[in-house]
Amino acid sequence: MKRWLGLAVAVVLSLFFLLTPAVAESDPVPAAANRLSRSGAPPPAAGVIHARSALHPEALINDGSFENGPPPASAWTEATNGTCEWIGDFLGVWGVAAHDGDFDFWAGGYCGGAPTSSSVTQANIPVTATDNELRFWILSYRPDDDDADPDQAYVQVNGTTVWTYDLIQDNDTYPNWVEQIVDLSAWAGQNVTLKFGANSAGDETGNIRFDFIQMEPGQGPPMHTVTSSVGTPSGTIVPPSQTVAHGATATFTLTPAAGYEIDGVGGTCPAGTLAGNVYTTGAITADCEVVANFRPEAGPGPSVLAIPTLAPVGGALLGLALAGLGLGVLRRRRGA
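Now predict its structure.
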């Protein structure tokens, strides 16, 4: 009896261990998921995506389309305050593919249920005298409510912020990618460090994706037209107009008509200096006009009454006449 009882216990214990799954200490913990919203709700239907403009792959910076994939293959150094990966293929989460290729960089958003701040950085990006216009594409979306603390995307060059974008619902571009342009001519001739990222400051946050980062030929500084005219006649000012770069000056030559002189320079341009008949404006920041004024030349001042003079011969004759007159007066007195 005891033999059969022991056999039964052994069978029951064997079945227990066979049916109970073993728990291994090395089992990985599932990674937190990238989310667009705190609730993890899916985005709305993507709808119609606007056609892209012509792409110029030759202008892409190194791995500018993030097609190397996440680190360590990526040319970008990634930083985040969570455990999620932010370089990847996010079509399944967003319902919208990358602007170019399969991968892009997603900043902001939630890692699990926590708002995230993240960035990507790359050094030694050449900015030349001609190729100094940074172009990139963004897709922004905030399904959660705006909050009081500002959540903001940014671009930095050598630590200097050159572009910002508030992650608020009014700035949503979803489902469209939108191109952004930043003038980097101030860094022409240098190799710079570019940084793209977003800071999530509140309890809720927005989302932004970056893709297709290029360095294109720059358009240069804005140009302004400076015109000239004559206010009070008479004279001329040349040239009649000229185009100058933002912050530069313009120079004009004033020529009074005969009998006139320069009476100052006015107009709407920043005040400048008049040296002789050459006028140079102040720094031009918008279209403006230079007005030349002239006035009649001033006449001679009050004259001193001229006293006539006599030539030497006339003086001698006058002296003889006066002497004769005096002699006659003397004789009359003696005769008296």
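DSSP finds three helices and 21 strands in the chain.
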